Amino acid sequence: MQEKIIILDFGSQTTQLIGRRVRELNTYCEIVPYNKFPHDDPSVIGVILSGSPFSVYDEKAFKVDLSKIRGRLPILGICYGAQFMAYTNGGTVEPAGTREYGRAHLAKIDESNPLFKDITPGSQVWMSHGDTITSIPGNFHPIASTDSVAIAAYQANDEKLWGVQFHPEVYHTEDGTQLLKNFVVDICGSKQDWDAASFIDTTVAALREQLGDDKVVLGLSGGVDSSVAAVLLNRAIGKNLTCIFVDHGMLRKDEFKNVLRDYEGLGLNVIGVDASEEFFTNLKGVTEPERKRKIIGKGFIDVFDREAHKVKDVKWLAQGTIYPDCIESLSITGTVIKSHHNVGGLPEKMNLKLCEPLRLLFKDEVRAVGRQLGMPEHLIKRHPFPGPGLAVRILGDITPEKVAVLQEADDIFIQGLRDWGLYDQVWQAGVILLPVQSVGVMGDERTYERAVALRAVTSTDAMTADWARLPYDFLAKVSNDIINKVKGVNRVTYDISSKPPATIEWE
Ligand code: XMP
Q1: Taking the complete model, does pTM exceed 0.90, yes or no?
Q2: Which of 85, 89, 420, 443 minimizes the number of CB atoms within 10 Å of its CB?
Q3: Does 383 sit in the ligand 1 pocket, CB within 6 Å?
């Protein structure tokens, strides 16, 4: 049985980060809504309560009854989690002054407390709540203070229950990983046996059990998630897996050919379907971004469905859904929202059972599994690429000619990033073909041609992003190469917008 930590989510933006930090300690964990603790699960070894956008004294604040957990499992409350336990047990929580917000330093700590083992007095912590605990219940005692907060952390007397008002999961808390390790490993007793190799072993065995001799289809996109899912399934069920890779005509230059070759090299049973003409026909004259997306989404489903049903007796649809797609997120109204938007609409339409072997993994873990499975590094480190492909990077209507121009410019940019050792430093990059022509001069001739925008961003999850500070010399070289080599382009710009308020893609 895989031991696990349960993280009760009270809606904080850093809840997923807590999950990732626990996983980095080679410990399996699951994030569940605050009111969905799995009471019947014997494999839980400890519980972490997340932060929240609410104050504990708000009427709408998320409340939970911990009586069935307390005394049975170790509990760590973070920020709101800490304030909630203090407040509901008779302590006081009040609005704090601005001084308690952001960076702070641990002043006094109880070094004999197991939660603070090997944590340096004076080390920086990150506070991010507008509230502070001003008194704790009589049966709790303080174990750390900061410059301005007397009760930065507490423990319940003779009980495995702790609260910290700062965020150990964020990078700015210097000894945060050590604190989480103290809790997860020393206090909860994690054996730290969760890693890529053990995941592969247990998942391959579970897939064999689940799928038996059934036939499975999987849609490959060229991206990391679907590729790793395919290789993992291939290891489990071999030729009973049929992979389908659809070319909608809006992939990068030579991508279809190259990726298909990679897949074949990995021993996958893969069918490449060139459906580009069908897509170009359906997209003719369409300029509205959402319409483009819908047409491509529906077209993809139609082609995939058609091809998949050529596989005799197919019973399962496999997808490369990963954990962040599955975590039920809490909205401020308290409703649980499930955002699950990988290949939207496919499972409903196909009437197949769904198999998602990566649904418990974070992105970096998917990559680690891919490596462990022996996949080539260029597949594993590939940048994210939108499902509708270059269609959302051609503003205005789409024609095969425009796609060809964009493919050339994009290829120069991406190859340039690789050649200059910059590819792995950016989250994703691409070129956008603008519906703008401008005047230029080439040799003795006046030109009137297209402008393109280069886009490169840094990010950790695509929710927020910043424009990449690429070296001027590199941008100059790329700009020159594009204008000299790509017929029809005479101007190159660089997009310096961050997300928010802009988005990564232009459409
Ligand atoms: P935005 O433009 O919203 O993009 O900042 C965030 C991330 O999502 C990708 N993206 C898409 N992926 N289908 C996809 O599969 C889409 O329609 C789509 N639109 C945006 C985008 O490339 C970035 O990684």
Answers
A1: no
A2: 443
A3: no
